[in-house]
Input
Amino acid sequence: MSRSLECKRLCPGNLPRGDDGALATWRDGDDWCILRPSTCRDTSEATYTGPDKDGSTNTVRLVHQLGSSSAVWAVGHEAFFKAKSWSPGLKSEARTIAFVTEHRPQIPVPDVLHEYIDGDRSFSILRRVPGRTLRDSWADLSSSSRDHILATVVDFCVSMAAQTAPCMQSATGGPIDEPYLSPDSPRPFGPLTVQQCAAYFSATSTEAAPDVGAALHFYHADLGPSNIMVSAGAVTGILDWEGTGFFPRFWISTKPSVSPGLNFIRYGF
Output
């Protein structure tokens, strides 16, 4: 999984013990997966994939990649392994998920099995959220289910926006990484006070900068159809919290109009 850790899949007869140095364990069907410090000098052997239930050897499967900055792999059937570029000062997705769990416990989030930093990459292992993405489920949903799901997401957004901070910052008070607000290097940037935000947008915008307001609002900056999990007509989880932070109110309504991932029309909504 990186230079320092390995993940192994164990049959039911080889259940993990409490003294084997495991950093995380989780069930995967009838088997167990165990994460622990690597004992392999050859990093090509650091991850044991084992056979899938259907006979395939692809127990670890790449499911998403964004250039060299981030990637996601499915690990077995019950977990995902996420790798993302990292620099000092950036807060991990796991820290943001913990913040949401503490301050907005009604919002369902992935269970974090383990997180760590290795060099210039952050890594996390998250338990799979049940259901399918709203993007993939939309065509099969009834009108009443669609209305219920959208009303639920609206409630989440309103509740999050009610949480405010005096600075534009990450959920835990660090810099934010929002490329649409930082067209030039360096990134990430901030935290910025309300006054600093006003000066920043005035300096970077070719038009009159929008009013920042008196406070910054908590916002999931990548809340699109592919990051909303649903099952049986209800929301089961919200994914991808890396870009979440406190932003000006105008950005909450502007971001969907500029980000392809938030373009609902392209998905048939």
